[in-house]
Amino acid sequence: MDGRKTMGLKSLIICAAIAGLAVVQTLPSTEPGKPRVQEEIFGFPADEQISYYLQNARNRTPIFVPGKCADNEILYPGDHESDWVCDCRPGHVYYPQMNKCYPLFMQGFCKPGEYVDVMRPSMIVNCTTNVCSGQNMVPYDGKCVELNRHNRICKRVGRVYWVIGVNATTLELGCVPPDATTMLHRVNGEEGEDEEPIQFEGANRCSNGTRTKYEGLC
């Protein structure tokens, strides 16, 4: 009988260890007449390796943390207070055939001379022939322009020139504030690999192009 109790306790400890719980065993008192006592065998947190930048889970701003997600993904707040979910960055689209996120209006998974695009209004990801030549050159408003540059087209607000980039809501090219596209440009590693987290104010996991949106979970 003692052997069965020992085996049962070991099984309980193993299961609790997997779940990240503390195990409490009720032990008989060593002194006659005294009640049985409880003794904590062990206990540990479920995730001791949580990132410093994610410890404040109440700060629900989507964030890029190096090494936490796949390429072209950032962390979005999940359904629970301490839950974070990887999904496509703004201006990117989820391509189910490759199970990856790709930047719009760049070659990505497409053949040379094409760029990643979406069909409208279905928003199905496809490849479009690029009628413009040259690195980062794409058609816009009847002419070839360079992505993430002012191109003498966009407006100036104060001393800041807007640039041609991807509108994160419509997934179309347009004039956008430089902060958003410059941030994406830098995170993509085109100006060196980033080692510091970058917050994505206003990013939404249910925006067009995300995996969550594609899977109908919004």
From TrEMBL:
- Signal sequence interval, chain numbering: 1-26
What Pfam families has UniProt attached to this entry?
A: DUF4789
Q: Which residues form the DUF4789 domain?
A: 68-148
Matching InterPro entries, A to Z?
DUF4789 (IPR031993)
PANTHER family given in the database record? IP06524P, IP06524P-RELATED
Q: Supply the alphabetized keyword list.
A: Signal
Q: Which domain of life is it from?
A: Eukaryota
What's the protein name?
DUF4789 domain-containing protein
Give TM regions: none
